[in-house]
Amino acid sequence: MHDLDETDLEILSMLAEDARRPFSEIGEAVDLSGPAVSDRVTRLQDAGIIEQFTIDVDRAQLRAGVPVLVQVALPAESVETVRERVRGSDGVEHVFVTAEGDVWFYARAEARNVRSWVAGLLSDVDVEGYAVTLVDDFEWTPSVEGLEFALTCVECGNTVDSEGETARIDGEIYHFCCPSCLDRFETRYRRLEEGA
């Protein structure tokens, strides 16, 4: 695995602003050809740094609704249930799990039915309480500028640098800080696979 350079970070930043931006346009900005940008993006995908390309839908343009931020306090055993239920709900745009184990989400709901909509989402789940806050203004600005990217070795937890290794094992990508960690991981992986 090679360290990300300034060009990689600039490409990531431009794709964060507009994932449909043509590689030729990005190439002009970073002084590379379109195919060279394509190669770098493919390498970033293969390394697991870029996982997917998404769109940011302004739901206000699609249907009426009141923007709300919902904070749900719940016991640890209910977090995954609530997160999956909320994630699959129509109108929910962003879901967060806090360090305290609460689930927060941003959504657009019908003005006259906000309380019943939230209660319906949380029915049959052990919930300690929730709060609904009306949102006056909302801005989502994803950025990769100023961030330090560091991959972690799956074997020992050290940071993967330019001396590191990347391997695809049974279709999954793994990063290692050194060849010996890769060897240990592969040996243990194969042993577990044979015992299964």
Question: Can you give me a brief rundown of this structure?
Answer:
It holds the Pfam family HTH_AsnC-type. The protein has 196 residues and is of the alpha+beta class. It is built from seven helices and eight strands.
List keywords for this structure.
Ribosomal Protein L24e, Chain: T; four-stranded antiparallel beta sheet; alpha+beta; TRASH_HVO_1752; 21% strand; transcription; Alpha-Beta Plaits; TRASH_dom; Arc Repressor Mutant, subunit A; Transcription regulator protein; 8 strands; 196 residues; two-stranded antiparallel ribbon; HTH-Siroheme_Decarb; 36% helix
Structural summary, described in words:
- 16% of the residues are buried.
- The strands form 3 sheets. This protein has a 4-stranded antiparallel β-sheet with strand order 2-3-1-4. The chain has a two-stranded antiparallel ribbon with strand order 5-6. A two-stranded antiparallel ribbon has the order 7-8.
- The mean pLDDT is 82.
- It has 3 domains: 1-55, Winged helix-like DNA-binding domain superfamily/Winged helix DNA-binding domain (Arc Repressor Mutant, subunit A), CATH 1.10.10.10; 59-134, Lrp/AsnC effector binding domain/regulation of amino acid metabolism (RAM) domain (Alpha-Beta Plaits, 2-Layer Sandwich); 150-196, Ribosomal Protein L24e, Chain: T (Roll).
- Helices cover 36% and strands 21% of the residues.
- The protein is flat, with a radius of gyration of 22 Å.
- With 196 residues, the chain is an alpha+beta fold.
